[in-house]
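Need Pyridoxine 5'-phosphate synthase's 3D structure for a figure. Predict it.
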Amino acid sequence: MSFLQPSGTIIDLGVNIDHVATLRNARGTTYPDPIRAALLAEQAGADCITLHLREDRRHIKDADVIALAPQLLTRMNLEAAVTQEMIDFACRIKPADVCLVPEKRTEVTTEGGLDVVTHFNAVQAAVKQLQDEGIRVSLFIDADEAQMNATAEIGAPVIELHTGRYADTEGAEQAAELERIHRGVLYGVSKGLKVNAGHGLHYTNVQAIAAIPEIAELNIGHAIVAHSVFVGWENAVREMKAIMVSTRLGARK
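Structure prediction for Pyridoxine 5'-phosphate synthase:
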């Protein structure tokens, strides 16, 4: 829990460290170290550390997850595909949270939400295995009522709504997408779900999402890594958290 949010009641920031690992892997060096990035992010106000162990290991590696788990003072939010390999790995590491996400080898980044309706049985089995190990499970989904109904039926307590389309649009189209997300947040809460959000959010578009009072947590990575090139890693984390908190407090007035 960060110094900016001692009560845990405003809004949480999950800092995604994937692209610190991307920089490291680009030259095959040991730096920049994603473990150090995670620990510094905690000191700068991150409420949790998010990282995605992809099947192709394009950024985060198994060793990163293993090394980081015992060092965190907040909590780990491990993103993983619905595959037996990834679910078994998560059960060995036992992070506080596992967020199940869709994954395609050809995509640059996650392109949409998990289709819980179509893959209901596989997702249900994965959720049960993780929950049996005491891990809280979230599902990364689109703001779609059918997907939220399926999530609630499975028994996953948390959803993370995909904000990529909101982030990639402008003007009236973005306003419509924001309204769709807002409706989705309210519907998720009505189903008894904790609602988080993320994907594509940055320093000038996060405000409208952060202002939605029912959203508990935003997970943001690429924008923070990119901004840190100019202002430093800890400053980039602090700035994002400050924007989120000030926006939420302003929305309450």
